Structures are given as C-alpha cells and as structure tokens.
C-alpha cells in the first residue's frame, strides 16, 4: 500500500524496541523537568482568562492555562524539525480545521481515492496533529527521531518567535494562515464559551473584547502573531507562505494551486483537466466536513480536556463580525490593528468579504 504522509500515521510506526527505549527516556525526562516547568510558570505574568481562571504570558504570548504554556516549553525542548516537514501555523480560529485537510489532501493526492478518502473518516486534528498536544505533560510525546516517512505534516499555534530553534534551523516549510481579526475575535469568543470551565464564569463579549484589544487573547496578541510570520514570509519566501482565510474563500482554486506549488507538489495540467483541484475543495468544504460523522460526534483532546469535535465548525463565513460587534468596537479594533501593523505592508481589508 502506498505511504500516506501524516504525522499520526507515522508516529505509530516505530518498532517495539524503539518504543521501549523512547518510553524510558520520556519517563526520565518527566521526572527531571515537570518541577522546573511548574517553577518557571509560577513566575509568569497572568491575567483573568476568558473562560479559564487565568491566562499566562510566555515569551510575549498568552496561553489559556499553565498546561498550555508547558506544552509550548516541551515542544521547544523536544521537537526536532526535519527538512522535509511541512508545518501549518495559525492563530486559533483562523481556519486551521479547513487547511489541515486541504494540505493533507494536496500531499496525498494520487494515493487516495476521493470516494474512500481518509478525510472522510479521520478528524482534521488527527490528520495533521497539533505539536503542542503531543508534547503536553499528560500525553506521551512521540519519538520523532524514529520517523521514517519522507515528509510529515504538523500543526502549531506557537508564534514564529517561540518556534523551536530546530524549525528555524531546518529547511522545512511553514504555511501560515491568518484571518480578519474581527472574525478571529468573534469565532474565539464563541469557541471558548462552548468549552468553558463549568466553575468559571465566562467573560461577557465586552470584557473579552477589552482583553483582545489589550492583546490578551488565545495565543495573542493577534498583531504580534501575524506580524512574526508575515515578516518571516518576506524574509524567507521559499520557506514561509503567508495565506489569508478570506483569500482562500474568495478564489479557492487559485490559492489551492498556490499552496500546492509552495509545498513542492504543484498540480499538473492533467490533474487540473481531471478536476482534482475541484475535488479537493469539495472534499474539504465546510458543508462536507461539518456533516461528516467523524467531525460532528465524539471528542478531541485539547490539553487536559476533551472537547466536542463539532465545536470546530460554527459558520465558516467571512464577515460574521458584522452580526456581533458594535460600530464603536469595529472602529476601535480597526484603529489598533492599523497602528500595530503600520509600516509592515500587511493589511486586513473588510472589502474582500462577501
Ligand atoms: P467560525 O467560528 O467563524 O465559523 P480553527 O479551525 O482555526 O479553530 O478555525 C475555526 C473556524 O474555521 C470556525 O469559524 C469554523 O467554522 C471555520 N471552519 C471550519 N471548517 C471550515 C471549512 N471547511 N471551510 C471554511 N471555514 C471552516
């Protein structure tokens, strides 16, 4: 059978000797470092969380919980990037759940039949696993050294400046997807409310907006996250592709082809003639993904908690912020973002929305 390129698949492919050795190393590391992580985290700045007791700031970015920070520290310590890897990087609620299967389907076309495609039966978050989760304290981290497949797909929410040094040093490619900050805010607000701690009163939309404007948001500040990858994409265009959710919505075939080209596997004219681009877009459409049993039933492990898979699908539209933000909120956020991004060449226009 042809190899399917996904980290999930390959992470299970080590031999039993390798697995035992790795488990021993991991146990030693757990004992050695858990306390030191806790010690460092106890000194970090914290703020009231949107739906958790506190959010913690580490290396300039905000995380939902101590375990979130610890996941990042563990990724920084253990992840060894390889030149063949493709890393999808996003801020939460920027369309990660869409781009994961898109990238997976681009990479594995020719190996998968559209009628029985893995996207139909596997959650996007298992097809392209989040690094932070693998390295989380309660989940065994994988022995990445033992992976043998030529190319792997991973995902991270970690900011460019906090990426493990091995990612920067490798020749691996990074696809960054961002989204209009007003839609990111609204989508985050509803997502976090749906996964709120039972014992914590969630912030009101006004309070959460205030935090967002201060930069205290899920892996935020928004502007620092996008700027980190934006600048990297200008400096290393062959290694970092900067994409927008709205662009993919507006002209999906064009941007899918751009993505495939960047990933080193452009569509041939024969594939285009056969409608492969269209098939991939149809397979990964909001309508198709959100109606699949694998995506609307069951739970997904996010850090220490299990959350319903269905909450990754809400509307999948551009511009839903118009239904939730007041004019004052819009003006205020527009001004902040404009000022923070000023001089960078990066802009978020509302006019591209439909
Ligand atoms: P909304 O809350 O605005 O609907 P992430 O995966 O980064 O957490 O982003 C989630 C957002 O992407 C949600 O936005 C979700 O509905 C949307 N989304 C999920 N699958 C999608 C798809 N196939 N096409 C477009 N948007 C999608």
UniProtKB/TrEMBL annotation:
Residues 19-33 have a biased composition (Basic and acidic residues). It holds the Pfam family Sulfotransfer_1. InterPro entries: P-loop_NTPase, Sulfotransferase_dom. GO terms for molecular function: sulfotransferase activity. It is an enzyme of class 2 (transferase). PANTHER family: SULFOTRANSFERASE SULT. This is Sulfotransferase. It comes from Vitis rotundifolia (Muscadine grape).
